[in-house]
Design goal:
The protein is α+β, with helices and mostly antiparallel strands. Among the domains are: 43 residues, no CATH class; 55 residues; 150 residues, Ribonuclease H-like superfamily/Ribonuclease H (Nucleotidyltransferase, domain 5, 2-Layer Sandwich), CATH 3.30.420; 63 residues, no CATH class. Helices cover 43% and strands 13% of the residues. It is built from 16 helices and 12 strands. The strands form 3 sheets. The chain has a 5-stranded mixed beta sheet, with helices on both faces. The protein has a 4-stranded antiparallel beta sheet with strand order 6-9-10-11, with no helix packed on it. Strands 7-8-12 form a 3-stranded antiparallel beta sheet, with no helix packed on it.
Length: 492
Amino acid sequence: MSLGTLTMSKRELDRAQLMLLVRERRRTQAQVAVQLGLTVRQVERMYRAYKAGGAAALVSKKRGRPSPRRLPEETRTAVLDVVSACYRDFGPTLAHEKLTELHGAAVSVETLRQWMIAAGLWLPRSERRKRPHPPRYRRPCVGELVQIDGCDHEWFEARAPRCVLLVYVDDATSRVMELRFVPSESTFSYFAATREYITKHGKPAAFYSDKAAIFRVNAKAPRCGPNATQFTRAMDELNIDILCANSPQAKGRVERAHQTLQDRLVKELRLAHIDTPEDANRFAPAFIADYNRRFGCDPASPHDAHRTLRQDEDLDVVFRWKEDRRLTENLVLHYQNSMYLVAESSQSLALRGKIVQVHEFENGTVKVMHGALELAATQFRKGGGVRQQDVADNKYLASTLERVRKVQIANDMQALAEKRMTKREKAALHASLAQRATPSELNAVAPLPGPNAPQHSPPNRHLAAGLERSKKQKLQNKATTATTRRRALAKV
């Protein structure tokens, strides 16, 4: 006779093992009660059930029984009939909205999802087949299509902070055309890397990138136009097209290069004892030559699609942040929460009410231009506060947090130098700085004096006067206390 299979949870198996120990007199019921966190009476009832029915008596009686809160089968059938007839190609969320609005069905989204999965009306994401990505032929010419992307990685392991490597890979040959270590993916970082690329190789026909905010305006209805990013504006001035991939697989050559670089380049930097992005950028040309010798391939066509710069294409002017502003009648324009007052001249007076262009450099310098004419301007800061446009984009978050960290460290250093603190507060602040600041940043902080070290505090006139007043007050309090005691003794 088959005994069948008994399904038990881990908790029930543990209880059955303890009941067996009690039955063999190797454990008392009181000891089992302490181990299970139950009372002795509960263990006694459990043991009586175990003696009567064995381990099966410890299994929960609710297992296998339908939930008392389960919806009736008639409701399930009616809902699935409506979904099959009207909303067969709808997802569970949208179908739930329509059932609630149009049919008054009181069914939760998750319950409807499970019903649709069981009835074969919805395929969960975990069971869907991955979308195929067929291979694409390489472009025939060098410089016809260059894939660009940034890779955020621990390039220097624990020797330096995490940074981003900008990678330029030629589609025709899989050769790495440019590598540049930068703090984060930003417009000016791509400006610098692209300028270096053009200086070495010339202008490519097109760049192939992802849909990051640097390359594409991702708003559904952008007010500034669908392609009005600073990088695409600069590429338009250089007559270089920007193509955005719909998936990482579409720009697979640069994605596969990331995997190789994360393995080989990290180890090469370790062997070369390189700990800074500046040294790594100087080391990059030698690594690129070795990488291309090992992994590069020959193009299908010997033609080089790179183009030389025209005489009217000045990279110093192209790779700037440029925005249009209207000059008011008072010769004032607004830019980045600041007012700029343009100096009065015959040229500026003629431009009142017209559009001028603000050029911002990577170091924060701002120039007001009208064509090739530079207008002298003075900045007036309007005030602080956080604005919606000051919220950092995800790809700028690393550099933003680094800037915030440095400002906080500078404030803590200033507090150590200026504020009056107890030794305990100073020690806590020093310990916090030791965790957040680098050794070079900590050099600006004076070390805490030891218990036997001489105190060389700078003279403070107000502090000395306060100590003198405190001493006089203490002496006066002692005298008052002594007089009160003498009077009390005299009365006695």
